[in-house]
UniProtKB/TrEMBL annotation:
Keywords: GTP-binding, Lipoprotein, Membrane, Nucleotide-binding, Prenylation
Cellular component terms per the entry's GO annotation: late endosome; lysosome; membrane; phagocytic vesicle; trans-Golgi network
Protein name according to UniProt: Ras-related protein Rab
GO aspect biological process, one term: phagosome-lysosome fusion
InterPro entries found in the cross-reference section: P-loop_NTPase, Rab29/Rab38/Rab32, Small_GTP-bd, Small_GTPase
Function in brief: The small GTPases Rab are key regulators in vesicle trafficking.
SUPFAM superfamilies from the UniProt entry: P-loop containing nucleoside triphosphate hydrolases (SSF52540)
Subcellular location field: Membrane
Coiled coil: none
Pfam families referenced in this protein's UniProt entry, alphabetically: Ras
CDD domains in UniProt: Rab32_Rab38
Protein source organism: Habropoda laboriosa
Length: 216
């Protein structure tokens, strides 16, 4: 008999399976992370969100198929610089991440490099590979974006990010699609044996060459 995994609750008597996955939602403050999480988990939107202190999380339950239920914990990690030292704690047990920037503010896109490096230096799958990541170009409802689709696609290609989506919490654009993309990738890794009890935090930061971490 296989040992029970922390991420699973197996209802074997009925042939049902219930899974629990922790996803990170990271990026600079003010890019709309909280709005995205609330829209996805609660189906509502408001522009009056307070700055996240440390981290907050919300739960979304998906009836993935007739025999599988997936509970997603979406961790909304504070984007303000003064909270950055705590990311190692918040990353623990996460199996995927959404990196968010504001498509109308180029500085938030430039900061994605920092967030991606932080994530990949601190968190890996048990085999040492990177967890699945999706890039969200948020606030796509705002006209005249500051970053072109070519720039975004180039960044994803150079940094091995499998997909990006233009999202809007206000108009509920592409949020479900982006999260489904992450779930599908996590399930593929899981059932290929890549996720056992959890991913692991790196024991120590890997020293990389200046240009060897992420590219922008």
């Amino acid at each position: 008999m296989k040992p029970r995994r922390d991420s699973d609750v197996l209802l074997s008597k009925f042939g049902h399976k219930e899974l629990l996955f922790k996803f990170l939602v990271i990026g600079d403050y003010g890019v709309g992370k909280t709005a995205l999480v609330r829209r996805y988990t609660e189906g509502r939107y408001t522009s009056n969100y307070k700055i996240t202190i440390g981290a907050d999380f919300a739960i979304k339950t998906l009836d993935w198929d007739p025999l599988t239920k997936i509970n997603l914990q979406l961790w909304d990690v504070a984007g303000h610089e003064r909270f950055g030292y705590m990311t190692r704690v918040y990353y623990k047990y996460a199996v995927a991440a959404a990196l968010v920037f504001d498509i109308s503010r180029i500085a938030t896109f430039q900061s994605i490099r920092k967030w991606l490096c932080d994530l990949r230096e601190k968190l890996t799958l048990p085999d040492g590979s990177n967890i699945p990541v999706v890039l969200l170009a948020n606030k796509c409802d705002i006209p005249c974006p500051a970053i072109s689709t070519e720039q975004i696609a180039k960044f994803c290609k150079e940094n091995n990010i499998g997909a990006w989506f233009a999202t809007s919490a206000k108009e509920n654009t592409n949020i479900d699609v982006a999260m489904r993309y992450l779930v599908e990738n996590v399930l593929k890794i899981k059932f290929d044996g890549g996720i056992c009890e959890s991913v692991r935090l790196r024991d120590k930061l890997t020293i990389r060459e200046h240009t060897g971490c992420c590219k922008l």
